Amino acid sequence: MSPKKIDEQLILDAAAEEFAEKGFDGARVDAIAKRAGINKAMLYYRVGDKEELYRRVVLRGQAGFQTAILKAMESTSTAPETMASILKGITENAAENKLMPSIILRELAGNAKTFPEQGREGLKAFLKTIRSMVTMGVEEGAFRDIDSTALQFMVTGAIFTLSLTREMRQKLNPNDPGPISTEQITESIKDILLHGILNEGDEQ
Fold it and tell me: Which domain holds residue 17?
């Protein structure tokens, strides 16, 4: 990897930390430069202004989730298997890219007003994938014809929230903190999504 690429990755890592902690509006370029161990002029030269930093951070984070989703769609045959694989892929990426869930949840809380346009396109692509999976499940007879938008935000919201609250939940209730590992989070969400919370004999 060239020195330029190495510098850019360090800068983006520092920017991700700043954006995750303070959001886009609260983040400061001089603070990002300090985290990266360079001066502000070098930061602008290597990557660009605050908007470009944010765009690059978001797209870099989204790339991992998109790769996992595509892999899930290609490596499974039935809709339930695809759902389980997508859950696993997103959860693993949330664990590897720990700052992205915080950045995305901040955006959603602020009505995504500062989310880069290319990032919005990534969300649209994910929704399209979820819709196709639901359609496939309906055609298989495995799924009801549910609202795919609600499903998308239920899945990502649950994964991101559970991923971000591991430490807090362990402190609040050490004897029963809920799912902690990537595997536990995946299995818990999959079980609730595919089987619901009612006993089989219960009447609705």
Answer: 1-48
| CATH number of the domain residue 143 falls in | 1.10.357.10
Strands, E, within 32-185: which ranges?
none
pLDDT at 1 over 80: no
Whether 35 and 129 map to the same domain: the answer is no
Question: What is the CATH classification number for the domain harbouring 13?
Answer: 1.10.10.60
Q: For residues 122 and 159, state if they share a domain.
A: yes
Collect all residues with Cβ–Cβ distance below 8 Å to 22 and sequence separation of at least 6: 28
Q: Is the dihedral of CA 34, 92, 176, 201 positive or negative?
A: positive
Q: How many CA atoms, within 13 angstroms, populate the side-chain half-sphere of residue 145? A: 1
**pLDDT tens digits, residue range 138-155?**
999 999 999 989 998 999
Cα dihedral sign, 51-52-58-62: positive
